[in-house]
C-alpha cells in the first residue's frame, strides 16, 4: 500500500456510495502519513463540488483520516477557537497522491467547548434509500458515530488538548519550508 510522505501535497476526493465524486480538495500538505493515519494541513484551498461549483476554505485546517475508523475529522482553526467537522465516512484509501473516502452524509459538528451535535440524519436516510445502503453499513456507521462521540468526550485523537498545537506547528513549519524552496 502506498503511503503519503510528510511534506507532500495531495488531493482529497470524497465520493458517495454510488461511486460518484462528491467533493475535491485541491491541495493538502501531509504532516504525517502511515498505513493507518494521514494528518494534513491546508488553508485557503480550492474545493470543487460535484456540480462544478468551487470555493476556497476560509481558515487553516488540520485534517485527520484513519484507515480503520469510519470517520474523518476536519479541525478548523478560527479566531474564537477550534471547530471540528466530523464526516461519518468509509476508512480512507490512498493512491497516486490522492486520498479517497466515501462520505455517508452523517456529520458531527464539535464546538470549541466540546459540545457537539449530530447533523444531516435526514440526508443520510434519503441517500440510504436512493443508493440502497445495506443494513450492515447502517450498523457500522451508527457504531462509529458512537465511537466518535466517545473520542470527543474522552478528548482522544484530534480532540486531545495538545493535538492542535502540535500539528499546527508542524503545518507552519512546512509552509515556511515550502516558501523557501
From TrEMBL:
Cofactor requirements of the protein: Mg(2+)
Identify the InterPro entries for this entry: DUF402, FomD-like_sf, Ntdp-like, SA1684
Alphabetical UniProt keywords? Hydrolase, Magnesium, Metal-binding
Please report the stretch or stretches of sequence annotated as the DUF402 domain: 18-156
Which sites are catalytic? Answer: 23
Q: Which reaction does it catalyse?
A: a ribonucleoside 5'-diphosphate + H2O = a ribonucleoside 5'-phosphate + phosphate + H(+); a ribonucleoside 5'-triphosphate + H2O = a ribonucleoside 5'-diphosphate + phosphate + H(+)
User: Which GO molecular function annotation, any one, does this entry have?
Assistant: magnesium ion binding
Which Pfam families does the protein's record reference? Answer: DUF402 (PF04167)
Q: Keyword Transferase: yes or no?
A: no
Q: What is its EC number?
A: 3.6.1.15, 3.6.1.6
Q: Which NCBIfam families match?
A: PRK13662.1
Role: Has nucleoside phosphatase activity towards nucleoside triphosphates and nucleoside diphosphates.
Q: What is the recorded name of this protein?
A: Nucleoside triphosphate/diphosphate phosphatase
Organism from which the protein derives: Planococcus lenghuensis
Q: What is the lineage of its organism?
A: Bacteria, Bacillati, Bacillota, Bacilli, Bacillales
Amino acid at each position: 500500500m502506498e503511503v503519503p510522505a510528510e511534506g507532500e501535497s495531495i488531493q482529497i476526493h470524497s465520493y458517495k456510495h454510488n461511486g460518484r465524486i462528491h467533493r475535491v480538495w485541491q491541495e493538502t500538505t501531509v504532516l504525517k502519513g502511515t498505513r493507518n493515519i494521514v494528518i494534513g494541513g491546508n488553508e485557503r484551498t480550492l474545493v470543487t463540488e460535484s456540480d462544478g461549483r468551487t470555493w476556497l476554505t476560509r481558515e487553516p485546517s488540520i485534517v485527520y483520516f484513519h484507515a480503520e475508523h469510519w470517520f474523518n475529522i476536519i479541525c478548523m482553526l478560527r479566531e474564537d477557537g477550534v471547530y471540528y467537522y466530523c464526516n461519518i465516512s468509509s476508512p480512507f484509501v490512498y493512491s497516486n497522491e490522492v486520498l479517497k473516502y466515501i462520505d455517508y452524509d452523517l456529520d458531527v459538528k464539535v464546538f470549541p467547548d466540546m459540545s457537539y451535535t449530530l447533523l444531516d440524519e435526514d440526508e443520510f436516510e434519503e441517500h440510504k434509500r436512493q443508493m440502497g445502503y445495506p443494513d450492515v453499513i447502517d450498523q457500522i456507521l451508527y457504531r462509529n458515530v458512537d465511537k466518535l462521540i466517545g473520542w470527543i468526550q474522552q478528548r482522544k485523537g484530534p480532540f486531545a488538548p495538545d493535538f492542535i498545537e502540535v500539528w499546527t506547528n508542524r503545518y507552519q513549519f512546512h509552509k515556511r519550508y515550502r516558501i523557501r524552496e
